[in-house]
User: Fold these one by one.
Assistant:
Number 1:
Amino acid sequence: EVQLVESGGGLVQPGGSLRLSCAASGFTFDDYAMSWVRQAPGKGLEWVSSITWNGDSTYYAESMKDRFTISRDGAKNTLYLQMNSLQPEDTAVYYCNAYRWPSHYWGQGTQVTVSS
């Protein structure tokens, strides 16, 4: 059974940091490109960041590239998102995604709330 389980979300003050994790199982993690996607309250899905299957290349949405860092650990089958300088507009449910054509897998999401 394919599973993507996100963790690490929570309540943080503006300017704070969080590190999200996404534990993968049930598929060959190293064969898949991985991404983080978020959904703010009342809004659609927004792509955050992606990393290639081997970790050689990373990509970020413009508003996040100086604050967020995506990484992966093949030994642990885990994807990470280090988020710094968080702002209220970063409040959202964060989902991890695994992609290798034609397969797409999604986690259940983890809530990040940025508020004072």
Note: The chain has no helices and eleven strands.
Number 2:
Amino acid sequence: DVQLVESGGGSVQAGGSLRLSCQAHRITSTSYSMAWFRQYAGKEREGVAAIDSDGSTSYADSVKGRFTISRDIAKNTLYLQLNTLKTEDTAMYYCAIGIYTFTNWGQGTQVTVS
């Protein structure tokens, strides 16, 4: 089964930047999409950004122009560059992978913006 391990979260002041990483282990297919989600305390998980197997990307309106999703296929690693962070970006961030739906999830990494 695919295993995802996130890293890179932390505390930062508003206007600052962070880069999240998601290392994928035991991938058996190249036809997959990956994505970043975030979850506010007491709320449902919401999509932040996604990247398809062909490299096309999509973003939530709230992060367009500030966040950038990318991947290094050779390293099986997904990234999320977070710039111009706002206090409302404070959340637990999760990466996910799947072919038609996102079936495997990481454990999450906390981002706190003050």
Note: The longest strand covers residues 18-25.
Number 3:
Amino acid sequence: QVQLVESGGGLVQPGGSLRLSCVGSGFTFSTSAMYWYRQAPGKEREWVAYISTFPGTTNYADSVKGRFTISRDNAKKTVYLQMNSLKPEDTAVYYCNRQGYWGQGTQVTVSS
């Protein structure tokens, strides 16, 4: 069965960086577009970033453009989200997604 397992969240100060990882299994990772979403307390889940299959075209929500970078390593069946210049408003549970399947999420808290 499809499984997505996120990791890498934590507490970071404003302006700091984190790298999230999501390992996929139970499907052909290399031929799957992958997404990152997030859900802040009291808010709806929102799309953050997208990466296609080869050649790995990317797209970002305006709120993270220029600060976040999505990438993938097909050999490791892993998609990453590098988050720089973090802001308190980036605080949320971050989820990996592939065609309707979700991971369990990883908490990111940006606070001084």
Note: The chain has a mean pLDDT of 97.
